[in-house]
Amino acid sequence: MVGIVIVSHSNKAAQGIKELSIQMIQSPVQVIDAGGMVDGDIGTDANRIKDAIEKADDGDGVVVLVDLGSAIMSTEMAIEFLDREQRERVVIADGPILEGAIAASLQASIGGTLVQVKGAAEECREVSKL
Amino acid sequence: MLERTIEIQNREGFHARPATVLIKEASKYGSNIEIEHNGRLVSCKSIISLMTLKAKQGDTVKVYVYGDDEGEAMDSITSLFNNRFGEE
Amino acid sequence: MTRDQLLKVIEEITIVIEENKVHLTDLDQAIGDGDHGINLNRGFRAVKEKLESLRDKDCGTILKTAAMSLISTVGGASGPLYGTAFMKAGAVVAGKEYISVEDSIKMFDEAIQGIIARGKASRGDKTMLDVLVPAFEAWKVAFEEGESTEKASEKMLGAAYQGLEYTKTIIAKKGRANYLGERSIGHQDPGATSSCIILKTIVDVMAKGE
Fold it and tell me: Residue A45: which of C77, C124, C63, C136 has the closest Cα?
């Protein structure tokens, strides 16, 4: 199953989004949170993100959801730390972190491919809320 | 192709949770499944579109199913709606 | 520069960043999210703690270890940016215990290329590159013209400070400051400032060593 990693500057936000995703999907999903710094401070940490990706990947690849700015740089750096083979199957979704995580998790839980899971997260950009 | 008009019975309408249940069920079938509400046609393959359908209790939706297993799929989906997707 | 001097440089950077923590944060308050000094200070303090265990390691390992530490403790954009810079520079001197002039030119170049690839910024975007690129060019050209290390350092710092002044006059095109648009004009970029501080520290430590 495609794994999902949530990268936020906030540890609590990442954990919360993970909890929400798991609660909504109700069936097994591989969602790992990688928010904030090791000591709980606000920020992003490429080493932490790399560990989360490795945890989330069972061979089917990983889609990473990010919040803003340096989360992307840290994630790109984390992906560079992976071995060549694994790097090929990790992608960053260009979609909203929360809705994207839920849509991606659901798609992954019904057996979506890496492309489909990434697509589900990115589709969330288009939809209006109200 | 099969089509059926179904009423939303859930107290809170067709919100994200029922959408999730529906998507999971729909994925078991090979048929194409689409839902129409207030002139908006949404595919069951589009997770976020389904989650934001905004159909309220009492509203009706039209379900279109097309494929080899359309009979089974339509019945199963109809049951979901009628059982309020497992909610009160 | 010897390995021991490199360790001294890093130690000094930590001290100087701490001294400038408030100044850097104030600059970042004006056109960023107000945490540059705090973040860098936290990052370099963590690096300092690793220095003892690096006393007998080669320059490449020292810089790579510093990079990894920065990545995991800085938190903001400077983490991946300075982390990449240190890592790329470290790769040039892997296994070496002495950094030659040629090495230093390559390290500087690789560090800048790393920052550009990581942050996708260019000179003129009002970032650390506006200090680092002119500084590198001055450093490289000075040696091509046969100058001494002392003279090259002087020219490099001159170019660095000029670049820093220049950032005041332009609009930010990257990072949080980018959202301020024209209001970012008149403010010195915090990342460019910390880069300048680091370059100056390197020069100061080398001058004492000679």
Answer: C77
